[in-house]
């Protein structure tokens, strides 16, 4: 390729560069602060370079617990979400009656467009001890005492999963649409029942799409903040809540920064790990 | 691979009704055991619908699909024992060629050793044994379709369904694979149904051709009979006969008739027992019209050359006879006579190939 030295378009990148530099420097400054100690009220950080904040983040039990439970819960919630999204995407794409697919699509779109706070409070109403779900269950005589959904991982998980569902469903719709139905028909005529076709043909063909979806929803799940705050009631904490508290409750910016840096790195590593495993699985199946 | 126990296929009053129209209506069809029947027709004529109903991918509205006399029209596709080849190959992309071909055997619980032997035999049959470890994406279109063919026949199905199997291939490959497909089908003696809109493919591959139109069979015949004696205007047009004219039947006897065409009378063959005095349509292929000098002694239609195009091995003339425009072909043999535009000529129609169509 010939590079034209006097290409004027390269100057057009300048504004973007300035904005980009501005953003990066803000993050950089925040990360840099993690190497100092908290200053007096009104100042940001003081003292000499130290790794004290990182020591606190990495080697205190409560920090380790929150970090690991954030990573683990995000993975589990993502997998559950995908398990729900796959049949949804299949119905949306393949329903014999178009309107069935359209209604599900509409429901997902409405979910997608409604605000998180609205949804969090909706779940509070639905999942409370005297909420619709528990009233229904006890009314039907299925449970004696109300099931505790709120202020534990169940409720937070339900809400996060509901939040992730549109991301997963919309991504998978494309993947399902790209499936060639003849391939499944061929398997059927060769003697495979519906279940066999689903597990041995459809799912392996969907696998690349599933892996992309997993990485996407996992990244979104890691950043959950609002649902654990509102539905966790202080008992369920994810890392974003911890960073928030350190920033705005304890005013310990360096400590918050160290937490964020550790979280960012572990998020990248875990996403990389998932992609790595995904590639291995794809190889093994094919 | 030893020969299969050939099955017969019968369709009885097969109907597929959608809310707004009938895709297939009261279709009756008999496919003798071991033969290849082609469903030929334009898109939307219902041929693919029939095939998909036989395969079990579409529910039947009413009617029966009898394989060896047993109605399979309500059973699940996986219990029908049918091999199918699709236009887009439909190989399992995540499996090797070998695993693709073995899939049907695995589903039937065939032992591992037998699977290996039968897969190898099937792949040898389509000359792809050396590619057994490849993935479908590493094969050419022609190779993929041969794998699909091996996969379909390795289970020794009662029927082989071919849904435009050569449609996605380029012309050169198509001809080669046509030949292979025909040889294989004959050798194995599998009762087969082919769906295509390509008349050359149909003429080459089939024992019988059923021409379909609007969910019904217009004509079913051997390829040669169909080519020579189309019985309706639709069939004649679909098989590319350009010369179709209104005519009047002057007189008839057992197998012949005399018709009035373009102000002249002509002898023609009369297979369908058309009665004298009626109106009818008459069809003749360009290659069955001889273009001769106007002063030729034979019985014919005098006309004037409107266009003349030399196309490789033949000359295509358009000749006007009293408002009727005929298309005629003359082979460009060593000493043929050229007629130029405006030249008066005479058209000699071959009576054996001048066909009266059903009104």
UniProtKB/TrEMBL annotation, chain A:
Name of the protein described by the UniProt record: Putative spermidine/putrescine transport system permease protein
One term under GO cellular component: plasma membrane
Entry-linked PANTHER family: INNER MEMBRANE ABC TRANSPORTER PERMEASE PROTEIN YDCU-RELATED (PTHR42929:SF1), INNER MEMBRANE ABC TRANSPORTER PERMEASE PROTEIN YDCU-RELATED-RELATED (PTHR42929)
First-listed, main subcellular location of the protein, grouped into a coarse class: membrane
Domain ABC transmembrane type-1: 84-282
Transmembrane segments: 12-32, 71-92, 99-117, 123-143, 150-173, 206-232, 253-278
Organism this protein belongs to: Microvirga guangxiensis
GO BP annotation list: transmembrane transport
Origin organism lineage: Bacteria, Pseudomonadati, Pseudomonadota, Alphaproteobacteria, Hyphomicrobiales
Automatic annotation (TrEMBL), chain B:
Domain ABC transporter: 9-239
Enzyme Commission numbers on file: 7.6.2.11
InterPro entries assigned: AAA+_ATPase, ABC_SmlMolc_Importer, ABC_transporter-like_ATP-bd, ABC_transporter-like_CS, Mo/tungstate-bd_C_term_dom, NA-bd_OB-fold, P-loop_NTPase, PotA-like
EC category name: translocase
Molecular-function GO term, any one: ATP hydrolysis activity
Top-rank lineage group of the source organism: Bacteria
Catalytic activity: ATP + H2O + polyamine-[polyamine-binding protein]Side 1 = ADP + phosphate + polyamineSide 2 + [polyamine-binding protein]Side 1
Keyword Nucleotide-binding on entry: yes
Keyword Metal-binding found: no
Any one cellular-component term (Gene Ontology): ATP-binding cassette (ABC) transporter complex
Keywords: ATP-binding, Cell membrane, Membrane, Nucleotide-binding, Translocase, Transport
Gene3D superfamilies (alphabetical): 2.40.50.100, Nucleic acid-binding proteins, P-loop containing nucleotide triphosphate hydrolases
Pfam families: ABC_tran (PF00005), TOBE_2 (PF08402)
Any one GO BP annotation for this protein: putrescine transport
Coiled-coil ranges from the UniProt annotation: none
Biological function: Part of the ABC transporter complex PotABCD involved in spermidine/putrescine import. Responsible for energy coupling to the transport system.
Family recorded in the similarity comment: Belongs to the ABC transporter superfamily. Spermidine/putrescine importer (TC 3.A.1.11.1) family.
Annotated PANTHER family: SPERMIDINE/PUTRESCINE IMPORT ATP-BINDING PROTEIN POTA (PTHR42781), SPERMIDINE_PUTRESCINE IMPORT ATP-BINDING PROTEIN POTA (PTHR42781:SF4)
Quaternary assembly: The complex is composed of two ATP-binding proteins (PotA), two transmembrane proteins (PotB and PotC) and a solute-binding protein (PotD).
Name of protein: Spermidine/putrescine import ATP-binding protein PotA
Species for this entry: Microvirga guangxiensis
